C-alpha cells in the first residue's frame, strides 16, 4: 500500500493517463480516487463508468452523450460522462471489456482531446484526466485481437499494478483496522482480531481480495459489535484450512519450552505462563536470526506479518533501537 501511495503521489501532479491493473476486488477504484484527490483536479468531479456493464450499443451515448432524435428513444438531449467529468477525472473501469468499435472512438478522443455527441457535428473539448482500470491481461487480449494495441499504448502511460490480497499479507491487519474504523464512523462498534483469528486470515487465499475482506469485517462487526473476534467466531471457510503456527515450532525453539510444568500448591496462572513462554520463544527466534524478522518468522513457522503483530504486542525491540527510542 505504501508503494502504491508513492506511485499515486508521483503521477497525480501530471495529466498523464493512468492504467490500473489488478484482479477484481483489489481496490482499483480506490487507487483511481486517490489519483484524483491528490491532483490539481481534486475540486472537479470524479466520474466512474464500468465499460463492461454497459451494452455495446449504448456505450457511445453513455460516454459522449447524444442529441435529441439521434436514435430511436432519444427523446431529449443528454450529456455523456466526458461532459459530466469536465474539469475532473473520468474513471474507465474494466476497459478491457470495451468493444473494439468503441476502442477506436475512444482512442480518437484521447488523441485529439475533443469529442462529439451522438447525432451532433459539433466538437467539444475533452477537459478530463483519464484513469483506466482492468482485471484483464491486455497484452494477451491484443494477441487475441480483442484489444487495440494503439489504445493500450495510449492508456499505458503510467501503469499501477495492485497486487492481490494473498500477496499483500502485510496489509491485512492494517485493512481490518481501516474497515473497522470506517464502520465506527457509521455508529457500528469497532471490532478487533485475536491472534488466532488474524493468523487464519493470513493463511486464507482471498479470492475476493480486499472487497471480500471488507465484507467480512462488516459481517463480524454486526455479529460481534465491539468485541475481540477469535478463531471460533470466523465463518467456517476461513477456518477450514487453518494450521496453527505453534504446531510447527522449529525444534531448537520448541526445546526451549519446559516439557513438564508442575502446578504447585497455589496452582498456575496459565494465561501469564503461556504469554511469558510465547514472549521467550519470540525473543530467542529474533536473537538467533540477528533480528531479521523474515528469518525469525521462518524459524517460528509464522507469517512475517503475524510476527510483527506479536512483536508489537510484547513490545519487542532490538536493544540498540530501544536505546534510540528512549533517548
Write the layout of secondary structure elements.
Layout: H1 2-12, E1 18-21, H2 28-37, E2 46-50, H3 56-64, H4 81-84, E3 89-93, H5 100-112, E4 114-116, E5 123-125, E6 129-134, H6 138-143, H7 149-155, E7 158-161, H8 172-184, E8 192-193, H9 195-203, H10 209-223, E9 228-229, H11 236-239, H12 251-254, H13 270-288, H14 293-299, H15 304-313, H16 319-326
Helix pairs in contact: 1-2, 8-10, 9-15, 13-14, 14-15
Tally of alpha and pi helices: 16
Structural Rg:
26 Å
**Strand-residue proportion:** 5-15%
Give the CA-based shape. elongated
Order of helices and strands: HEHEHHEHEEEHHEHEHHEHHHHHH
What class do helices, strands and sheet pairing give? Answer: alpha/beta
Strand order of the largest sheet: 2-3-6-1-7
**Low-confidence stretches at least 5 residues in length (pLDDT < 50)?**
246-259, 321-327
Amino acid at each position: 500500500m505504501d508503494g502504491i501511495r508513492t506511485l499515486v503521489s508521483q503521477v497525480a501532479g501530471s495529466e498523464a493517463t493512468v492504467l490500473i491493473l489488478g484482479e477484481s476486488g483489489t481496490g482499483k477504484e480506490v487507487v483511481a480516487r486517490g489519483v484524483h484527490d491528490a491532483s490539481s483536479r481534486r475540486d472537479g468531479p470524479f466520474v466512474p463508468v464500468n465499460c463492461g456493464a454497459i451494452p455495446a450499443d449504448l456505450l457511445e451515448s453513455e460516454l459522449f452523450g447524444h442529441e435529441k432524435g439521434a436514435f430511436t428513444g432519444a427523446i431529449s438531449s443528454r450529456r455523456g460522462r466526458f461532459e459530466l467529468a469536465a474539469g475532473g477525472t473520468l474513471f474507465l473501469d474494466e476497459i478491457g471489456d470495451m468493444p473494439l468499435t468503441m476502442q477506436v472512438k475512444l482512442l480518437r478522443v484521447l488523441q485529439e482531446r475533443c469529442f462529439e455527441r451522438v447525432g451532433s457535428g459539433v466538437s467539444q473539448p475533452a477537459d478530463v484526466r483519464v484513469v483506466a482500470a482492468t482485471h484483464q491481461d491486455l497484452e494477451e487480449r491484443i494477441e487475441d485481437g480483442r484489444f487495440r494495441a494503439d489504445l493500450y499504448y495510449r492508456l499505458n502511460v503510467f501503469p499501477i499494478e495492485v497486487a492481490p490480497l494473498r500477496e499483500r499479507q502485510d496489509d491485512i491487519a492494517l485493512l481490518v483496522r481501516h474497515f473497522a474504523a470506517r464502520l465506527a464512523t457509521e455508529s457500528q462498534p469497532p471490532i478487533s482480531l485475536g491472534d488466532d483469528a488474524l493468523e487464519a486470515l493470513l493463511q486464507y487465499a482471498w479470492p475476493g481480495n480486499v472487497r471480500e475482506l471488507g465484507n467480512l469485517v462488516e459481517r463480524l462487526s454486526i455479529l460481534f459489535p465491539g468485541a475481540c473476534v477469535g478463531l471460533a467466531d470466523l465463518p467456517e471457510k476461513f477456518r477450514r484450512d487453518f494450521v496453527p503456527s505453534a504446531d510447527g515450532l522449529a525444534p531448537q525453539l520448541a526445546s526451549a519450552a519446559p516439557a513438564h510444568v508442575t502446578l504447585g500448591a497455589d496452582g498456575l496462572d496459565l494465561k501469564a505462563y503461556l504469554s511469558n513462554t510465547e514472549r521467550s520463544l519470540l525473543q530467542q527466534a529474533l536473537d538467533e536470526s540477528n533480528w531479521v524478522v523474515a528469518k525469525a518468522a521462518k524459524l517460528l513457522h509464522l507469517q512475517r506479518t503475524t510476527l510483527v503483530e506479536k512483536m508489537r504486542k510484547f513490545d519487542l525491540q532490538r536493544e540498540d533501537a530501544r536505546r534510540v527510542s528512549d533517548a
